[in-house]
Input
Amino acid sequence: MITSTRSSHHSGSALVAVFWIMSILAMAVFASLSVVKIQADVATSESHGRLARELAEKGIAIAVHGSIKRSDPLLTYQDEYGSSGYESTFTSLATTFGLNALINKALQEYRQDGESLGNTLLYQIITEEWEMDPSDAQLFLHCLFEWVDADDQVTTTTGWEEINYESEGFTGRPYNRYFSSLDEVRLVHGYDALEAAKPDWSNYFNIWTTHQIDLASADPEIISLNSLSPIGRIIDIESASLLHQRIIGEDGIKDTEDDLQQANVEQLLTEFGSGDISLIADRYIFEGLRPKYSLVESKGYSGNISLTIKLALLGRGNTPQILHRKETLDYSYNEQ
Output
């Protein structure tokens, strides 16, 4: 009887041991499969990532080519399965105000007109349109002038130089150069007043273009705002909308066959303006499909990965100058 009990005990222990071993083996197999799956996913992601980059770069190369028009079908591509491809575009950068150019122009006018700011477009925009207090606007513009001025001498009545910034614990300011990004504007003394008056002010500016706005590409609000003068807007928003419609054609869509391809700027402004066009004529250009300053954007995608490349360019064709490059990677593209 004792021998039978011991035999049953040993058999039970052996069975438990077998179950434990089987569990451990199952866990090991599961872990191995998980590792293999992770490695496979990584390899797949790397493959999709490489293809997405290749396609994005291909879109850039096509969009930069000087003979490509904005309506060209070569600007988009998708494979037969719809799982990979690219979408590329190029537009004029001169659809917002070139901040550095506006500051430089305002500074020159300020020096020529006996330190008056009233006739400068930048001052008119932030006071008349964005309702910044005139004293705050003067302080901010003076500080902008000192910021871009190459020396460390105070040349305005209220502008800040190094000694002023140091008194508040900021060293290395002003930079004594023009802005390399719009984010730097936030470092200038007096900026808070601009932020309070117009929180979305950065949507109206870029740092690359000249002081001229491209009539062929700009929206009506910018076209009208650019016509500010001491007596108000020479082209009101309604006239600017009519001008915009004239340029994009009867179908109301940009970059189609009925767009106005070439135009005389002064004739257009005279047709839709209601004042002395000579005051504002030099603020506009008409670049049509060949913008001097371009924003080129290309999104390449493969599987669930997309890579978007944005380039700010001076010129297109064989020898464009890259002013800025930004890449954005998205791992959730095409997820359902």
Observations:
- Residues 2-64 form the longest helix (63 residues).
- The chain has a mean pLDDT of 88.
- The longest strand covers residues 293-302.
